[in-house]
Design brief:
6-stranded antiparallel sheet; 2 domains; alpha+beta; single chain; 7 helices
Length: 167
């Protein structure tokens, strides 16, 4: 069952941003060292920089929008926090610019009960659910930057009441 009344979408990446750029740079250095020696690279910095830009594009571009492989769509069902999981089609996740997302599961991990009907209680259940998702998607990077920057400013109890279709 696919729900449209979700309250937050969390992106899932093939690997963390720092690892992606480290691998991109390693790949570039490997390629360039085969083609040009150090003295040529040192005397032609603009040529090296142009090739770096071209390599970045062919490697997969920027991390944030090109390396996403899935999304966790959080929703409430009664007194529970749940999350649908949407992921890219191929089972093996590789760098690519062509992606098509498909529904994978109506709940990624077991639901989390909201025991304390307060802002802190709802937030604790959401954080517990996301922690379980991290364990389930081991080897993947769940990007919680936006959630972490906004969570202290949201009235979670109101969100729960508003978005809870099954209350």
């Amino acid at each position: 069952m696919i729900f449209d009344d979700y309250f937050l979408v969390i992106p899932v990446y093939r690997l963390p941003e720092s690892e992606y750029f480290s691998k991109m740079n390693d790949d570039f250095e490997r390629l360039i060292s085969k083609s040009w020696d150090a003295s040529f690279r040192h005397s032609n910095p603009s040529l090296v920089e142009n090739w770096r830009k071209s390599h970045r594009s062919s490697y997969g571009g920027d991390w944030e929008f090109n390396e996403v492989i899935g999304y966790i769509k959080l929703f409430f069902m009664g007194s529970q926090v749940r999350g649908e999981y949407w992921s890219t089609e191929p089972r093996r996740k590789v760098k690519t610019r062509k992606k098509q997302f498909e529904f994978k599961a109506h709940k990624l991990v077991a639901e989390c009960e909201i025991w304390d009907k307060t802002n802190d209680g709802v937030l604790a259940a959401i954080e517990d659910y996301l922690s379980r998702c991290k364990k389930k998607l081991k080897g993947r990077h769940i990007d919680l930057r936006e959630f972490e920057s906004l969570k202290a400013h949201i009235d979670w109890l109101s969100v729960h009441k508003t978005k809870n279709t099954f209350a």
